[in-house]
Inverse folding.
């Protein structure tokens, strides 16, 4: 009986003469977390609306800083500025940028709003790890009409950056 048990134990474990060894390479990549900093707020300047009955006058500032206020029912003045941000992370990584439209609320009458349709890059490529990072700009456009209430309209961006 002991001989059978020894024979079974020897057959289940095999002998060292038939063992094989192989090596494999192990890699791990690390990516720095993203750091996003606001450098400058967006400003569309001052818009004077003409009297009468009209609609659909678009005021726009592209992410490159090109300003358009060409509707004859609007007069635009004061300095404009694109919003500017800086993103830092790992060198040679593509960073996706998402900026949804912004609801801007009249600061004198919260029932009055405008929608800022944003103009932002879809992505940027980091050219260094950490500082200095890459700057990018965000612009946008609003549509006004003769019925747009007077006042200062303000809102906030939700800027999302991810790898």
């Amino acid at each position: 009986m002991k001989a059978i048990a020894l024979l079974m134990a020897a057959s289940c474990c095999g002998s060292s003469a038939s063992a094989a060894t192989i090596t494999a390479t192990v890699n791990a990549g690390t990516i720095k977390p993203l750091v996003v900093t606001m450098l400058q707020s967006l400003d569309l300047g001052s818009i004077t609306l003409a009297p009468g009955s009209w609609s659909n006058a678009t005021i726009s500032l592209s992410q490159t800083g090109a300003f358009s206020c060409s509707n004859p029912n609007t007069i635009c003045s004061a300095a404009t500025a694109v919003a500017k941000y800086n993103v830092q992370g790992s060198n040679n990584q593509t960073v996706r940028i998402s900026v949804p439209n912004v609801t801007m609320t009249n600061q004198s009458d919260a029932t009055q709003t405008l929608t800022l349709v944003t103009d932002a890059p879809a992505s940027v490529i980091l050219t260094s790890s950490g500082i200095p990072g890459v700057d990018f700009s965000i612009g946008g456009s609003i549509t006004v009409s003769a019925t747009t209430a007077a006042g200062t309209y303000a809102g906030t961006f939700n800027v999302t950056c991810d790898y």
Notes: The radius of gyration is 31 Å. DSSP finds one helix and 13 strands in the chain.
